[in-house]
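ARCHIVE CARD
Drawer: 12
Card no.: 0347
Subject: one protein chain, sequence and derived structure
Cross-reference: see card 0346
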Amino acid sequence: MNNRTKTISLALAVLAVLVVGLLLLPRRYSASKPVPAPAPTGVLLSFHGLTNLPLRGLYALFSVTNAGPQRASFDPDSLAYRDSQTQTWVTNSLRNQRRDGWLYWRHDPDGLVRLGSWDDFGGDLLPAASATFAAPVLVSNAPWRLSFYCVDQAVGVQGLVDRSGDLLQHVSGVITSGPAGSQTTFSGRRYYLVTPEIPK
């Protein structure tokens, strides 16, 4: 084996190790969910009232604005209602539950507005973007509120690793199964957003 062949073989081995390592990185965001920080200044979640949608029922209307410098993912984490006897909040997880009934309008900074279900668009916003969404009212006999788990895109070295992993995942998906949706990894700052209390 000549030197050129050895060099190419070594380079391919290193590339293979990097590709495997990047593909094994956690996607979207870590399942361990470390304790989030307080919500960053300027990230706002507002309640706009209740409305009865034809053929759908009672919905609560909210808006969220990402005034931070990074693209952010926000996903419903829990629904809490106030127990009338103990006056404490009872929390129910919304993780891993389908949200087919949720409606979602995303307002991008370029003025584009898209309408669809929460699952169609996920729950991420570009910097300076906002969204309006409607959640079905799941509790009608007690005050309630929603909590969202939010994760920013990472910056620096971790951001570079995440973007590279997303690109490799996309390329490998196109090669193995044809064009598919792009994946975005969020592994930066974590925080919660909690809606105001919605009266019964």
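Annotation on reverse: The beta strands are 44-53, 57-65, 72-82, 89-93, 103-107, 113-117, 124-125, 130-136, 144-152, 190-194. The radius of gyration is 21 Å.
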